[in-house]
């Protein structure tokens, strides 16, 4: 499916544009935002390549990757990234990151709900899962609030910052997902 534009309460998911590179770099180039991720802070040049690759994958004949901009709906400001990648049978993995100066106001929780709406309502998936660092308490909080239950540990899942790191896996099935109402998702 292309193009994706999904809005919930305060946030919109939309396709990435070349003009987004500086705003994406504010997230992927940030040591704080990438502390628990599977990669080290990216240079602006690396972010340019990521955005370009995402734009190409967005128009692939059988699209398997949705790497999307997270924008505040009222201002249009890009404040994060959201990714859903199809894999296996009617299943996908999700990832997300918000600019550190916008943490703690509910954006992460809303992005997860938007990704679940994309996966279940738009793409008709059965299972959506995410892998987080065992130390990533904020990610655990937003995943659990959205109904993704902890289902286990992948040992030595990623090699990052010179060492192997386990991941904790969370998942939700289509029949378990409670679609948020406009009122209940607002914090
Ligand atoms: C994870 C992330 C998206 C959360 O975004 P956010 O906009 O702050 O999320 P919300 O405001 O919706 O909720 C954050 C929750 O984490 C909790 N939290 C934040 N830091 C925490 C910490 N150090 N320990 C425990 N809980 C913490 C908050 O209390 C809040 O939970 P609550 O509402 O139950 O109190 C954001 O921290 C981020 O972008 N991190 C870097 C990238 C990343 O780790 N992505 C996840 C990859 S799996």
List the helices and strands and how they pair.
Layout: E1 5-7, E2 11-15, H1 21-28, H2 31-34, H3 44-58, E3 65-72, E4 78-86, E5 91-98, H4 107-122, E6 127-132, H5 137-145, E7 149-160, E8 163-173, H6 182-185
Helix pairs in contact: 1-3
The structure holds coenzyme A.
Organism: Streptomyces millisiae
Domain N-acetyltransferase: 11-180
EC number: 2.-.-.-
Largest sheet: 8 strands, mixed
What's the CATH architecture name? 3-Layer(aba) Sandwich
Secondary-structure class: alpha+beta
CATH superfamily: Gcn5-related N-acetyltransferase (GNAT)
What is the mean predicted local confidence, pLDDT? Answer: 94
**Uncertain stretches of 5 or more adjacent residues:** 183-187
Family: Belongs to the acetyltransferase family. RimJ subfamily.
Domain N-acetyltransferase: 11-180
Organism: Streptomyces millisiae
Protein name: GNAT family protein
């Amino acid at each position: 499916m292309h193009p994706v534009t999904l809005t919930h309460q305060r946030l919109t998911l939309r396709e990435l544009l070349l003009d987004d590179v500086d705003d994406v770099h504010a997230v992927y180039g940030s040591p704080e935002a990438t502390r628990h991720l599977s990669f080290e802070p990216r240079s602006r040049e690396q972010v340019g390549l990521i955005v370009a690759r995402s734009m190409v994958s967005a128009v692939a004949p059988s699209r398997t990757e949705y790497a999307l901009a997270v924008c505040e709906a009222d201002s249009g400001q890009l404040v994060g990234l959201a990714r859903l990648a199809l894999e296996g049978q009617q299943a996908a993995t999700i990832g997300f990151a918000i600019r550190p100066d916008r943490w703690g106001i509910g954006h992460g929780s809303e992005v997860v709900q938007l990704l679940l709406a994309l996966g279940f309502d738009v793409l008709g998936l059965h299972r959506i899962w995410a892998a987080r660092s065992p130390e990533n308490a904020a990610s655990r909080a937003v995943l659990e609030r959205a109904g993704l239950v902890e289902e286990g540990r992948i040992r030595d899942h990623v090699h990052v910052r010179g060492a192997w790191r386990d991941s904790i896996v969370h998942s939700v099935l289509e029949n378990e997902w409670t679609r948020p109402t406009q009122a209940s998702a607002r914090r």
